[in-house]
């Protein structure tokens, strides 16, 4: 009980610290958080050249640090055969082996210098003349030179295609990209430079023409801009939600504090009541003892007085008995007869007194 209270206190303290951080420190903290994104949480090394893998929980690990997949008793049925599951070493969330992606963010940063990136103008993809492209066919997903555009528009099969002029297109779409291309899994030579909106995934030109025929697509850079904006909006919303959650959390914390304060207050009340009760009991006990002492004191005195009386009486009787024995043994008739009346009076007196004592005892027992 006490332990949990302590940890609650700790949470409160930590949160207060976070709130009291000046803006500058906050920034450093954020940079630190981003810094953690490109180092492996297992080996603490930078992901540079270590083939980082991204798990669905958004935690990344070097390929070699990724835990081996668990072959569960009931493996998921997949067209490619049974797959194992991987448990994230950081958050413990489990995912399927095939859902683990390459972390291309880090691959981007482990980039070849931008000077070597091809920045030449786009050439026609339709003919082998190596001439500069002036337009783009949306349906064929191809850059075309002037000649090929004319041919394209003459041929019946492609006459209805939408040709966009090069000037209408974003520079990124024209291939002036600083990013190292990622190649299609199926078409190893084709870079993934399109984004199929219908399937919500990256595609290469061949994919878009075959598997994703008639789907809506965008150039990577255009799609990136749109989706980035969307993600940024979502992030903002999420941050709002986080704030709300933080408020709830602080409510809970203050609730916990309140409960703790109440507990302490009631405990003190109880302790105070116990003290009061003990004091009251002591007071009552003392009164009773005093009453008892007063009562027994009277009784004591009475008994002691009786004892004294009886002792005096005993001495007197002994004296009368001894005198009488002495008087009868003295063989002096004159002397005996002379004081006989006095002796008889004294011999008869004790009987009355004894009767009187009995009566006194009887009387005392009644009290
Ligand atoms: Zn690692
Ligand atoms: Zn994770
Ligand atoms: Zn051409
Ligand atoms: Zn075309
Ligand atoms: Zn492809
Ligand atoms: Zn598609």
Automatic annotation (TrEMBL):
One Pfam family in the UniProt entry: zf-RING_UBOX
Primary location group: nucleus
Protein name: TIF1A
Subcellular location: Nucleus
Domain B box-type: 119-172, 179-220
Signal peptide stretch: none
Provenance organism: Poeciliopsis prolifica (blackstripe livebearer)
Superkingdom to which the source organism belongs: Eukaryota
Keyword flag Nucleotide-binding: no
Signal as UniProt keyword: no
GO cellular component: chromatin; nucleus
SMART domains from the UniProt entry: BBC (SM00502), BBOX (SM00336), RING (SM00184)
Keywords: Bromodomain, Coiled coil, Membrane, Metal-binding, Nucleus, Repeat, Transmembrane, Transmembrane helix, Ubl conjugation pathway, Zinc, Zinc-finger
Domain RING-type: 40-91
Transmembrane segments: 342-364
């Amino acid at each position: 009980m006490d332990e949990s209270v302590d940890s609650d206190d700790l949470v409160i303290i930590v949160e207060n610290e976070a709130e009291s951080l000046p803006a500058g420190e906050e920034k450093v903290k954020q940079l630190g958080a981003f810094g953690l994104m490109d180092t492996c949480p297992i080996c603490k090394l930078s992901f540079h050249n270590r083939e980082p893998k991204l798990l669905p929980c958004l935690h990344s690990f070097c390929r070699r640090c990724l835990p081996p997949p668990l072959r569960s008793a009931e493996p998921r049925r997949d067209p490619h055969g049974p797959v194992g599951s991987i448990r994230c070493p950081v958050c413990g969330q489990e995912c399927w082996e095939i859902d683990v992606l390459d972390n291309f963010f880090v691959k981007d940063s482990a980039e070849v210098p931008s000077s070597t990136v091809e920045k030449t103008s786009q050439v026609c993809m339709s003919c082998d003349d190596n001439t500069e492209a002036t337009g783009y066919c949306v349906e064929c997903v191809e850059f075309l030179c002037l000649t090929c555009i004319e041919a394209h528009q003459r041929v019946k099969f492609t006459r209805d295609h939408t040709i966009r002029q090069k000037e209408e297109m974003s520079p990124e779409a024209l291939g002036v990209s600083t990013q190292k291309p990622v190649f299609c899994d199926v078409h190893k030579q084709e870079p993934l430079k399109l984004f199929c909106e219908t399937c919500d995934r990256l595609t290469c030109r061949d994919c878009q023409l075959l598997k994703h025929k008639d789907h809506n697509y965008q150039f990577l850079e255009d799609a990136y801009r749109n989706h980035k904006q969307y993600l940024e909006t979502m992030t903002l919303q999420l941050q709002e939600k986080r704030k709300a959650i933080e408020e709830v959390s602080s409510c809970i914390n203050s609730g916990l504090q309140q409960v703790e304060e109440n507990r302490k207050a009631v405990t003190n009340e109880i302790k105070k009541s116990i003290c009061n009760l003990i004091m009251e009991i002591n007071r009552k006990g003392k009164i009773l003892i005093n009453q008892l002492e007063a009562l027994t004191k009277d009784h004591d005195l009475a008994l002691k007085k009786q004892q004294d009386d009886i002792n005096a009486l005993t001495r007197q009787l002994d004296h009368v008995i001894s005198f009488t024995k002495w008087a009868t043994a003295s063989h002096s008739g004159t002397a005996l007869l002379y004081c006989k009346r006095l002796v008889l009076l004294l011999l008869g007196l004790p009987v009355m007194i004894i009767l009187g004592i009995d009566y006194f005892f009887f009387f005392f027992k009644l009290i």
